[in-house]
From TrEMBL:
Residues 92-184, 1351-1391 are annotated as: Disordered. It is a multi-pass membrane protein. The chain crosses the membrane at residues 30-50, 56-74, 314-331, 337-359, 371-391, 434-453, 483-509, 529-550, 557-575, 587-607, 753-771. This is Pecanex-like protein. It comes from Dicentrarchus labrax. Its main location: membrane. Residues 130-153, 1360-1369 have a biased composition (Low complexity). Belongs to the pecanex family. Keywords: Membrane, Transmembrane, Transmembrane helix. Residues 1076-1302 form the Pecanex C-terminal domain. Residues 101-110 have a biased composition (Gly residues).
C-alpha cells in the first residue's frame, strides 16, 4: 500500500503539478537528471529573461526563438531515432512482398513472424523461431559456462548486476524490433551466398529470447571455442569470384590479425541473431556499413564480433563499436582507415551520447504531423505567455507561478502525465499530451480578447436583464477571472477538472448545439462538429432574411412581407432539421398557452403517472393497465390500448401544432422590439431572433417532454411576477430553456446524492465507507455548491471510491464513453481449426450468451422509437438510462440521441449468472412491494390498492423506479437441460443411438445424390466386404447396452441383425422411390456401412469408453460440432465423397438429439415410421440444429429462426457440464426500470477514476458492492471493459419510428410517393367496386368492400387484423436461412 501511495504521489500528484516531470526509478541517473534540467530550463528561462531584461518584445523574440530551436532539435532527433529503431516492425510485410516466391531452404532461413501492435497498448512483439536460430541456441551452454568463469575473474571495476533492463516508461510507450537492412552477414550461413541479399530479410530471433540470454558473456575463449561451427564458410571464401579484391597483407602482423579474424568468423551466425537486438541503438547508423559494401564480407563480421566482445565486458559500448570499425578498416584498406578515423570518430562519439541517453528522453511521436504540432504548440505557448508577461499582466510571485504554468505546458509536450487524472483510458494516451498547451493557448487568447474589449469599450450599448454586457468593468472582471483560472492550472489538472482536448471540443460543440441552437446529443467528435456547423450555416442563411425584414418600415397592423418569408423559411428549415412545420397565429397567445399547458400536463405528467407500476408512489398497481398486465405468459405482440393512441395523438398535436404556433407567435411579437435601438439593434437583434427561434423550434420537435413546464413558468414569471425584467418573451423563453435544463440536471444530481447517502439505507462496502460517512455531514454546503457547479457544466458528480464523499469530475458528452464498439463474437469463423477441435474457444457462458443481447438490440432497433412515442417507457429525454430485466436478461439501455422520429441508443448486457451483489440488486428490481403492510415499526396494513407507509416512503428514496412490468418484446425463450441427466442410464443412450441410426438412414435416402453414391465404384469396393453373408463387425466400440441391433451370439453387428431392426424404416423411407431396398440390395448395404461408420466415429470420439457417461458425452459433443475422425481402415471408403459426412452423418447425430428430447414427452409416439418421418421433416423445416460456435447459429438467431437447438459444453470456473440448449422464438415480458441518469454518470465516472487513475485493481473493492437504492453493482458492471465487465456492448444503434408497424397504423405511416399512390389506387378500387355493386341488384356492398381492400396497400386494414397476422407470424415464423428443405419424398409418403 505504501509503494502504491508513493507511486501515486510521484506519478500522479507531483507529475500533474509539473506537467509530467517526476523522478523515475526505472531510469538511470543521467536520464532523470537530464529530465530535471530540461524542466528547470523551461521554468527558469522565461523568468530569468523577465527579471534580467526590460519588458519589451525583445524578450518575446529571444524566448520564442530559443524554444523553437530547442523543441525542433529534440523532436527531430527523437523522431529520427524512433524511426530508425522501429523500422523492423514492418520488415515482415516487406519481406513477404519481395520474397513471396521463395521456398525450401530460403523459407526456413527467413526470420520469425512478427506482429505489430498499437504502441499505446500493453501488447508485446512475438516471434517464432526458425531453423536458423538453432545454430545460435546450440552454443548457449558454452556461452553460459564462459559467463560463469568470467564472473569469478571480474572482481574489480564497475560491474553491472542487471544488464539492459528495459525501462518501464519506454516499455509502456512502444516495443521495438530492429532489422538488418544492410550488410551480408545474414547470408554467411550459406557458403554459396556471401553476396548482398536481394531484399530485406525478416528477423530470426525475438527480443524476448535475447533478453533471456542477458547473463551470457562472450570472451575470446568462448568465441574461439566455436570456430569449428562455420569452418566450411571460411574454406569456401577462397573460391569466391571476387577473391582478388581482398589483397593479402604481406607483413606478419597483418597475417596474424587476419588469422584471428578468420577464427572469429565462426561466431557470426550467433552474432546475427543477438547483437542486432541487444545492441540495437548502436547499429542505427547504417551509413557506415554502406560505405564499406565492397568489404562487407570481412567488415560486417569482424565489426559485430568485436563489438559483442566489448559490449559484454565493458561499459563504454561506443568504444567497442569504434574499435570494431577501425579494425575492419585496417584489415580492409589502410588508407581508408586513416580517412575514416578522422572523419567519423567525432560523429560516432556524439552519436553514442545521443543514442544512449536521448532515446528514453521523449515519448514517441508516430507521425511527422505530431512533431510539427508539438513544436507549434510549444512556440505558441512561449509567444502568448511572454506577451502576457511583458505587458504586465502578472507581478510579484505570480510571475513565477505563471512561468511554472508555462513550463508545465511545454514539458507535457515532451513527457506528459501518464495516466492523467482526466484520461479516459488505460495505458499511454497520446492525446492527453496536448491538453495543457491547448487550454493554455485558449485562456491566453481569451485574456487578450477580454483585455482588448475592456480597453476599447466606452459605452454600455447592449444590456440584458439590467446588466451591461459590454461594460468595461464586466469584461475586466471576466479577464481577471480567466487569469486566476490560468494560474491554477497545476491544481486544475491534478484534480482532473479539464478533460482531454477532443472530449472538451465534443462537449463544447454538443452543449452549444443543444442549448443555443436546440440540437441534440452527438455521438462523436465529427458528429458534434457537423451539428454545430450545420446550425451555424442555418443561422447565417436565415439571418439575412431577418435582417432585411427589420430594415423595412413596420406599420402597427402590418407585418413586412420579407419577415413573413423569414418565418416560413424558419419553419421549413426547422422542419428539415427536426421534421416539423406550422403557421403562426399571434392573436391567440393566452389560448395557446393554456392549451399547451393542458396538453403538456396531460401528455407528460398525468398519462405517464397513471401508467406507472406505482402511480405517485401511492397506488399499488397501474391505474391504466395494458392487456398483458394480468397474463402470466405473453404469447402475442403488445395490444395497442386506447390511452396509447391518445398519447400518440396528443404528442403529435403538441409537436406539430402547439409549439410552432407559440414560438412563431413570439417571433412575430418580439422581433420588432428586439431589433429596436433601445434593445439589441438590428444586427444583434436579427442574430438573436434567428438563434432563439431555431433553438426553440428544434427543441420542441426533438425533445418536447419538459418544454411545457419551461413555457408555462416563463409566461407566468415574466407576465405576472416580474414583468419589468422581461426582455421580450422570445428571449425569455430562450434563456429559461437553458436555465431549466440545468435545473433539471441539478434536481437529478441532488436526488442521486440524497438517496445514495441516506443514513437509513447506506450500504458500506468497505471500512473506508464507514470512515467517510460521518466526515461527509459537515461538508453538506460544499456538496451543494459542487452539485450546482457540476450541473452548470454538465459534469458527473461521482462518489469518491464509492463512499459518501462526492467530487466533481471532468466534463463529458452525453455518450460518456469514448470507445466505439463493434463487437465481434468468437466463433468458428475467426478461430483456428486446431483450437476448435482441442480447446473449444468461446465455450464460456458469457461469449455464448452474448448473442441474445445482440438479438435484443436488433429487436429494439425495430420497436424502441415507436414504443417511446406510445408512452410505454414513460417520459424520456437525452441521456436517460433504463434497465430491461427478465428471467435471465439484464441489460442497460442508454438513450444518447433523441430526434424527431429517431432514437440512437446503446445496449449493455450483463452476465446471466452474475455475482452475489448483482443477484441482490436484480431481486430488488424484480420483487414487488404490494404486500408490504408496515408502518414505521408496526404492521397495521394498508387500504385496498394503496401502498403501505413503509413501502411508499422507501420507494421515494430510490435512484430508480419501475415503470412497466409487462413490456413485450420479441425474443427467445431459453431452456437448458442437463445432458448428463438425460443420458444417465443405458436405456436412454440406446434410444439416442437408435435415433442416430434412423437419422442417418433418413438423410441418405432423402439426399438427391443417392443414385450417384450407389453407382460410385470406390464406395462399392469399400463396402464389398460388408456385403458378404457372414460379415460381422466386431469393433469393441459396439455395446450390447447401447446398440439395438447388437448380435449377442456373434458379439458384434452383422447385416442380418441390422436389417432385423432397421429394414422396415429403410423401406418406409424408400417407399416412393424406384430403388431396390431388399435385404441384399446396394441401398441397404450403403445404409449399413454408414450406420456402422457413424457409431464407430461416436465410439472413437468417446475413446471407446461408451459405458462411461462423461466419455460418451464428450464424444457426442465432438460429433455434434462436426469433429469426425475416421480411425478404421474399413471406413476409409467415406473419403470418396465427404458430402456423406456433411449431409448425412452430421445431420443425423444432431437430429437424434432433438428426437431424444421429444421421446420424454411421448415415449411411444415415434415407434410408428410415419410419425417419425413426419417429425423429422417438420424439424427440418422449423428447427435449426447447430453448434453455437458455428456461424450458422448466429445467422439463424439474428434472422429470427423459430426454433434452435444446440449442445453446449460449459467450461467455466471449474464446471465441466453439457447442456442441451433449446431456443423458441416468442414474445418475452420485460420489466422496464428507469435509473437516474446522473446516478449512472456519477458511478461510471467514479469507477473510471478509481481504476484508471487510482489504480485500484481489487476485484472486491467497496465501490462495486451491492447498493439496492442506487443499483451500484449493476451500473458499475455495465462500464466499458476493463473497468466493467459487460458480456455485450452494442454499437450505437438508431431506431426509427417508421419501422414500428403499430405506430404506422395510428398515424398513417410516412408521407411518401409510394404510399400516396397506394392510397389513390385503393380508393379508386373501392369506389369502382361500390358503384358496380350498387348498379347490380344482386350485388353486395360488403363483398365489394372486401374485394377493394385486397388491392390496397394495407394501411386501411384494422389494428386487430394486423395484430392477428403478427401473432401468426410469431408462432410459425419464417424458415431459417440455413434450414434443409425436405425432399418431395415426404409429401408422397403422407398422401
Amino acid at each position: 500500500m505504501g509503494s502504491q501511495t508513493l507511486q501515486i504521489l510521484r506519478q500522479g500528484v507531483w507529475a500533474s503539478v509539473t506537467g509530467g516531470w517526476y523522478y523515475d526509478p526505472d531510469q538511470n541517473t543521467f536520464v532523470n537528471a537530464l529530465h530535471l534540467y530540461i524542466w528547470l530550463f523551461l521554468l527558469c528561462f522565461p523568468f530569468t529573461l523577465y527579471m534580467a531584461l526590460q519588458p519589451t518584445m525583445v524578450i518575446v523574440g529571444i524566448y520564442c526563438g530559443v524554444i523553437a530551436a530547442m523543441f525542433l532539435l529534440l523532436k527531430m532527433v527523437n523522431y529520427r531515432l524512433h524511426h530508425a529503431l522501429d523500422e523492423g516492425e514492418v520488415v515482415e510485410h516487406q519481406a513477404k512482398e519481395s520474397q513471396g516466391s521463395r521456398g525450401g531452404t530460403e523459407g526456413a532461413n527467413d526470420g520469425g513472424v512478427t506482429r505489430r501492435e498499437d504502441s499505446n497498448g500493453p501488447g508485446a512483439l512475438k516471434a517464432k523461431h526458425t531453423a536458423a536460430n538453432a545454430a545460435a541456441s546450440s552454443s548457449s551452454s558454452t556461452v553460459k559456462a564462459a559467463a560463469g568463469s568470467e564472473a569469478g575473474v571480474r572482481t574489480g571495476g564497475k560491474r553491472r548486476t542487471s544488464r539492459r533492463t528495459p525501462s518501464t516508461g519506454s516499455a509502456k510507450t512502444h516495443a521495438r524490433v530492429l532489422s538488418l537492412d544492410s550488410g551480408t552477414a545474414a547470408c554467411l550461413n550459406d557458403p554459396g551466398r556471401l553476396g548482398a541479399p536481394a531484399g530485406p530479410r525478416p528477423l530470426t530471433t525475438s527480443k524476448s529470447d535475447l533478453e533471456a540470454k542477458e547473463g551470457e558473456v562472450l570472451d575470446a575463449a568462448s568465441l574461439l571455442g566455436r570456430a569449428s561451427q562455420l569452418e566450411s564458410v571460411t574454406r569456401s571464401r577462397n573460391s569466391l569470384p571476387n577473391q582478388a579484391a581482398f589483397t593479402e597483407p604481406q607483413d606478419a602482423t597483418a597475417a596474424s590479425l587476419r588469422g584471428m579474424y578468420y577464427t572469429q568468423r565462426s561466431n557470426i551466425l550467433y552474432t546475427l541473431h543477438s547483437v542486432w537486438y541487444t545492441t540495437s541503438p548502436y547499429f542505427t547508423f547504417k551509413s557506415m556499413l554502406i560505405i564499406h559494401t565492397s568489404h562487407s564480407q570481412i567488415c560486417t563480421g569482424s565489426l559485430k564480433v568485436t563489438f559483442l566482445f566489448f559490449y559484454e565486458n565493458y561499459d563504454n559500448y561506443m568504444i567497442a563499436y569504434i574499435l570494431s570499425v577501425l579494425l575492419d578498416l585496417f584489415l580492409c584498406n589502410t588508407q581508408l582507415f586513416t580517412f575514416h578515423f578522422i572523419i567519423f570518430l567525432p560523429f560516432f562519439l556524439y552519436s553514442n551520447v545521443l543514442i544512449k541517453y536521448f532515446s528514453p528522453l521523449c515519448y514517441r511521436n508516430r507521425e511527422v504531423l505530431e512533431n510539427v504540432l508539438a513544436v507549434v504548440l510549444a512556440v505558441l505557448v512561449a509567444f502568448l505567455g511572454s506577451v502576457l508577461l511583458v505587458h504586465g499582466f502578472f507581478t510579484d510571485i505570480w510571475v513565477f507561478q505563471f512561468c511554472l504554468v508555462i513550463a508545465s505546458c511545454q514539458y507535457s509536450l515532451l513527457k506528459s502525465v501518464q495516466p492523467d487524472s482526466s484520461s479516459p483510458r488505460h495505458g499511454h494516451n497520446r492525446i492527453i499530451a496536448y491538453s495543457r498547451p491547448v487550454y493554455f493557448c485558449l485562456c491566453c487568447g481569451l485574456i487578450w480578447l477580454l483585455h482588448y474589449g475592456s480597453l476599447r469599450t466606452t459605452s454600455s450599448r447592449f444590456t440584458l436583464y439590467g446588466v451591461a454586457l459590454t461594460s468595461s468593468l464586466v469584461l475586466a472582471s471576466a479577464r481577471d477571472l480567466v487569469i486566476v483560472f490560468t494560474l491554477c492550472f497545476p491544481i486544475i489538472f491534478f484534480v482532473g477538472l479539464l478533460p482531454q482536448v477532443n472530449t472538451f471540443v465534443m462537449y463544447l460543440f454538443e452543449q452549444l448545439d443543444i442549448h443555443v441552437f436546440g440540437g441534440n446529443a452527438s455521438t462523436s467528435l465529427l458528429s458534434a462538429l457537423y451539428s454545430i456547423l450545420r446550425s451555424i450555416v442555418t443561422v447565417a442563411l436565415l439571418y439575412g432574411f431577418c435582417y432585411g425584414a427589420l430594415k423595412e418600415t413596420w406599420e402597427p397592423h402590418h407585418i413586412p412581407v420579407l419577415f413573413s418569408v423569414f418565418c416560413g423559411l424558419l419553419v421549413a428549415v426547422s422542419y428539415h432539421l427536426s421534421r416539423q412545420s406550422s403557421d403562426p397565429s399571434p392573436f391567440l397567445s393566452y389560448v395557446l398557452y393554456a392549451l399547451l399547458g393542458t396538453v403538456g400536463l396531460l401528455t407528460h405528467y398525468l398519462l405517464p403517472q397513471v401508467r406507472k407500476q406505482l402511480p405517485w408512489y401511492c397506488f399499488s398497481h397501474p391505474l391504466l393497465k395494458t392487456k398483458e398486465y394480468y397474463q402470466f405468459e405473453v404469447r402475442d405482440a403488445a395490444h395497442v390500448m386506447w390511452f396509447e393512441k391518445l398519447h400518440v395523438w396528443l404528442l403529435f398535436v403538441e409537436k406539430n401544432v402547439l409549439y410552432p404556433l407559440v414560438i412563431l407567435n413570439e417571433l412575430s411579437g418580439s422581433a420588432r422590439e428586439l431589433a429596436s435601438p433601445k434593445r439589441l439593434d438590428t444586427e444583434v437583434g436579427a442574430l438573436m431572433i434567428t438563434v432563439a427561434g431555431l433553438k426553440l423550434l428544434r427543441s420542441s420537435y426533438s425533445s418536447p417532454t419538459y418544454q411545457y413546464v419551461t413555457i408555462l413558468f416563463t409566461v407566468l414569471f415574466f407576465t405576472f411576477d416580474y414583468r419589468h425584467l422581461s426582455e421580450t418573451l422570445l428571449l425569455d423563453l430562450f434563456l429559461m430553456s437553458i436555465v431549466f435544463s440545468k435545473m433539471w440536471e441539478l434536481f437529478y444530481k441532488l436526488h442521486f446524492v440524497y438517496t445514495y447517502i441516506a443514513p437509513w439505507q447506506i450500504t458500506w462496502g468497505s471500512a473506508f465507507h464507514a470512515f467517510a460517512q460521518p466526515f461527509a455531514v459537515p461538508h453538506s454546503a460544499m456538496l451543494f455548491v459542487q452539485a450546482v457547479v457540476s450541473a452548470i457544466f454538465s459534469t458527473p458528480l461521482n462518489p469518491f471510491l464509492g463512499s459518501a464523499i462526492f467530487i466533481t469530475s471532468y466534463v463529458r458528452p452525453v455518450k460518456f464513453w469514448e470507445r466505439d464498439y463493434n463487437t465481434k463474437r468468437v466463433d468458428h469463423s475467426n478461430t483456428r481449426l486446431a483450437s476448435q477441435l482441442d480447446r473449444n474457444p468461446g465455450s464460456d457462458d458469457n461469449n455464448l450468451n452474448s448473442i441474445f443481447y445482440e438479438h435484443l438490440t436488433r429487436s429494439l432497433q425495430h420497436s424502441l422509437c415507436g414504443d417511446l412515442l406510445l408512452g410505454r417507457w414513460g417520459n424520456f429525454s437525452t441521456g436517460d438510462c433504463f434497465i430491461l430485466a427478465s428471467d435471465y436478461l439484464n441489460a442497460l439501455v442508454h438513450l444518447i440521441e433523441i430526434g424527431n422520429g429517431l432514437v440512437t441508443f446503446q445496449l449493455r448486457g450483463l452476465e446471466f449468472r452474475g455475482t452475489y451483489c448483482q443477484q441482490r440488486e436484480v431481486e430488488a428490481i424484480t420483487e414487488g412491494v404490494e404486500e408490504d403492510e408496515g408502518c414505521c415499526c408496526c404492521e397495521p396494513g394498508h387500504l385496498p390498492h394503496i401502498l403501505s407507509f413503509n413501502a411508499a416512503f422507501g420507494q421515494r428514496w430510490l435512484a430508480w423506479e419501475v415503470l412497466v412490468t409487462k413490456y413485450v418484446l420479441e425474443g427467445y425463450s431459453i431452456t437448458d437441460n442437463s445432458a448428463a441427466s438425460m443420458l444417465q442410464v443405458f436405456d436412454l443412450r440406446r434410444i439416442l443411438t437408435t435415433y442416430y441410426v434412423k437419422g442417418i438412414i433418413y438423410y441418405v435416402i432423402a439426399s438427391p445424390k443417392l443414385e450417384e453414391w450407389l453407382a460410385n465404384e470406390t464406395m462399392k469396393d469399400g463396402l464389398r466386404a460388408c456385403g458378404e453373408r457372414n460379415y460381422v463387425d466386431l469393433d469393441p466400440t459396439f455395446n450390447p447396452n447401447i446398440d439395438e441391433d447388437y448380435d449377442h451370439r456373434l458379439a458384434g453387428i452383422s447385416r442380418d441383425s441390422f436389417c432385423g431392426v432397421y429394414l422396415g424404416w429403410i423401406q418406409y423411407c424408400n417407399s416412393r422411390r424406384p430403388l431396390d431396398c431388399e435385404k441384399d440390395s446396394a441401398l441397404v448395404l450403403l445404409c449399413f456401412g454408414l450406420c456402422v461408420l457413424g457409431r464407430r466415429a461416436l465410439g472413437t470420439a468417446s475413446h471407446h469408453m461408451s459405458s462411461n457417461l462423461e466419455s460418451f458425452l464428450y464424444g457426442l459433443h465432438a460429433l455434434f460440432k462436426g469433429d469426425f475422425r475416421i480411425s478404421s481402415v474399413r471406413d476409409e471408403w467415406i473419403f470418396a465423397d465427404m458430402e456423406l459426412l456433411r449431409k448425412v452423418v452430421v445431420p443425423g447425430i444432431r437430429m437424434s438429439l432433438k428426437l431424444h428430447q421429444d421421446h420424454f414427452t411421448s415415449p411411444d409416439e415415434y415407434d410408428e415410421p410415419a410419425v417419425l418421418f413426419e417429425a423429422i421433416s417438420t424439424h427440418q423445416q422449423n428447427l435449426v440444429i447447430a453448434h453455437e460456435g458455428d456461424p450458422a447459429w448466429r445467422s439463424a438467431v439474428l434472422s429470427n429462426a423459430p426454433s434452435l437447438l444446440a449442445l453446449r459444453h460449459v467450461l467455466d470456473e471449474g464446471t465441466n457440464e453439457y447442456k442441451i440448449i433449446m431456443l423458441n422464438r416468442r414474445y418475452l415480458s420485460f420489466r422496464v426500470i428507469k435509473v437516474n441518469k446522473e446516478c449512472v454518470r456519477g458511478l461510471w465516472a467514479g469507477q473510471q477514476q478509481e481504476l484508471v487513475f487510482l489504480r485500484n485493481r481489487n476485484p472486491e473493492r467497496g465501490s462495486i458492492q451491492n447498493a439496492k437504492q442506487a443499483l451500484r453493482n449493476m451500473i458499475n458492471s455495465s462500464c466499458d471493459q476493463p473497468i466493467g465487465y459487460p458480456i455485450y456492448v452494442s454499437p450505437l444503434t438508431t431506431s426509427y419510428c417508421n419501422s414500428h408497424p403499430q405506430l404506422g397504423h395510428i398515424l398513417g405511416g410516412p408521407i411518401s410517393m409510394g404510399n400516396i399512390r397506394n392510397f389513390v389506387v385503393s380508393t379508386w378500387h373501392r369506389l369502382r367496386k361500390g358503384c358496380g355493386a350498387g348498379c347490380n341488384s344482386g350485388g353486395n356492398i360488403e363483398d365489394s368492400d372486401a374485394g377493394g381492400l385486397s388491392c390496397g396497400s394495407g394501411n386501411g386494414t384494422g389494428g386487430d387484423s394486423q395484430q392477428s397476422s403478427m401473432s401468426q407470424g410469431g408462432n410459425s415464423g419464417p424458415a431459417p436461412p440455413h434450414s434443409y428443405q425436405p425432399h418431395t419424398l415426404g409429401e408422397n409418403c403422407c398422401t
